[in-house]
Amino acid sequence: MLIGACGITCEVCGLLENEACEMCGCVPGTDVRVPDKQRRLKAQMGFICEVLECAAKKKIDFCFKCREFPCEIYYSQGEYGEGFPFSKEFLDKFK
Questions:
Q1: 40 falls in which pLDDT band (50, 70, 90)?
Q2: 78 close to 86: Cβ distance less than 8 angstroms
Q3: CB-count burial class (<10 Å; 0-12, 13-18, 19+) for 85
Q4: Are 77 and 66 in contact (CB under 8 A)?
Q5: pTM over 0.90
Q6: How many whole angstroms separate alpha carbon 13 and alpha carbon 22?
Q7: What is the rounded CA–CA span in Å between residue 39 and residue 9?
């Protein structure tokens, strides 16, 4: 079971569930495969994962470890589907 930087497993990710992602799983932000995952996602879906990009830049495994979580990236994920990967209500509980 792979867990992405966002903290969810690929098995419950909306991208995989809707067959939009054929990536063979996501990775934590400190994984050496981040650049390859981003290139593949861009080629397959036309965008990169902003969550994974941010975690990689901050050199953190998972966003839950970041002092800024939940940040604007999570609240603005509506373009990938309402509440992706977490609903506003869920994120508000962390504030």
A1: confident
A2: no
A3: buried
A4: no
A5: no
A6: 12
A7: 20
Q: Which segments of 9-70 does DSSP mark as H helices, in order? A: 14-17, 34-45, 50-58
Least confident of 39-43, 52-56, 58-62, 84-88: 84-88
Which residue bears the tokens 């966003």? 63
In angstroms, what CA-CA distances link 84 with 33, 49, 73? 23, 12, 11
Length of the chain: 95
Domain spans, the chain? 10-92
Convert the pLDDT of each residue in 46-76 to its tens digit: 888 889 999 999 999 999 999 999 998 888 8
CA dist 59 and 75 (Å) reads: 21
